[in-house]
Amino acid sequence: MGFNKENMIHYFPGSLDNQSDRASSKRPFEIQEFLKERGNKGDVVISGNSKQRLALLYEVLERDDIESLNYIYIESTNMPLFLNEIRGRSFQWYKELKAIGKLKKKGVKIILFYRDMYWRFPEFKKSSFSWKVKVFFHWMEWVLIAKHVDLLLLPTGPIQEYLPENELPKLEFHPGIIEWDEKLLEHKETSEKNQKIKLLYVGGVIPPFYKLFLALDLVKNVKNLELTICCRDYEWARVKHMYSDYDFDRVNIVHKSGEELIPLYLSHNVFLDLREPVDYYKYAFPYKYIESISYNMPLVILKGSSAEDFVTKNNFGWACKDLEEAIQLFSSFDVDSMLDYQREIQKNKHQYSWENRFQYLDAEVKKLSN
Which of 109, 106, 166 is CA-nearest to residue 141? Predict the structure, then answer.
C-alpha cells in the first residue's frame, strides 16, 4: 500500500468481529482489518476480555523496541470501561490503566476516540438510580481522560461543546470507508439502469430520536420511489402500530445485520435519512453514512446536522431543508442523475480510506511532539 509510518497499538475493550450491527464494534473491527492489510510488523492489536488485554499489554511493555511505538489508539465503547468490567464481574481494569500509564511514561502517546457523549445531553437524563450510577462512572472516566489523554478524537467537531471543561487537543475523526471489489460496484451501476429509485434506511426506529414519518411521507408523495427500512426486529415490533395509517405497498421492512447488509447496499440506489437533526443527533455522525459511500450510494439527509458538510462538500449526496424540498428533489430525479453522483462518490471517497485516515492522524500526533 506504500504506507510506511511508525507503529501503533490499537486497543479496544471488547471482542472484534464483523457480525455486530453496532458501529461501536464495526469501526474497531475495520481498523483491525486495515492494520492487517498495512502489514507493519510492529503494529499491535489489543482486544478481547480483560484478562486477554492485560496479558497483551504486559507483552508490549516487555518489548525491546517499545520506542518504535508512536501511540496507543483507544476506541471507547458506549459504556465507561469501569462499568463494563464490573458488569462482567471483572476487576482488572485498574491493572490495565496502570499498564497504559507505564506505556505513556515510556513515550507512547495516548489517543482516545471518544464515541458517545449522550450522558452530557439533557434529553437522555433520567431520575433512576441506574442512570445516576452510569453518570458517576462516566465522570470517573472523564477525570482520567482529562488528565492522561494526549489527543481526543471526536465523531464531529461541534460535539466538543458538550464536553466538560478541558484543555485537551481535539480532532474530528470520521471513520474510514470499507474497501470493496470495484468490479462488484461496476455491476451495481449497470444493473440499476431503467429501474425505479430504490431508497434504503438502515438504523434505529425507536422514538423520540428515530422517526420514520418523513421517509414514509416522501414515498407516499413520489410514486417512482421504493423504500426498504432495515432495523432490529424487536424494535419494529414496538413501533409498527405508529405507522398503521400508511400504505406499505412500496415499503419493505427487513431485519439484517453484518454481512447480510451487503446485498441491500448493492440492490438500492440512495441512502435516505430524514430524521430531524435535533438535540444529540444534530451532533452525531452515523456510521451508516460511511457504509453507504463505500458502496457508491448517495445520501439524502435533512439540513442542520454536523454531517451536512460531509455530505454536501464532498458531493456525496443532498441535504434537504424539509420534506417539501425532498419531494421536489425526487420528483425531478432520474436514474442518470443518480449514476452521476455515484461516479462522483467513486472519485472522492478514497480520501476517507483508513490509510488516509491514519496518515492524517499520524501527522496530527507528530505535531504534539513539536
Answer: 166
The three grid cell numbers given for residue 164, joined into one nine-digit string: 466538560
**Per DSSP, what are the bridge partners of residue 112?**
74, 152
> Residue 189 in 3-state DSSP?
helix
Bridge-partner residues for 69, per DSSP?
Answer: 7
- For residue 297, which phi and psi values (nearest 5 degrees)? -100, 115
Q: How far apart are CA 362 and CA 278, in angstroms?
A: 33
pLDDT digits (tens, 9 = 90+) for 88-146: 555 677 888 899 999 999 999 999 999 878 888 888 888 888 889 888 989 988 999 99
The C-alpha angle with vertex 275 and arms to 346 and 25, in degrees rounded to 5, equals 65
Q: What contacts 256, CB < 8 A, 6 or more positions away?
A: 230, 264
Question: How do residues 273-291 score in pLDDT, each as one tens digit?
Answer: 998 877 788 888 999 999 9
* CA separation for the pair 260, 254 (Å, rounded): 11
CA distances to 83, 268, 272, 326 from 323, in Å? 41, 21, 12, 5
Please state the pTM of the whole predicted model. 0.89
Rg of the chain, C-alpha, whole Å: 22
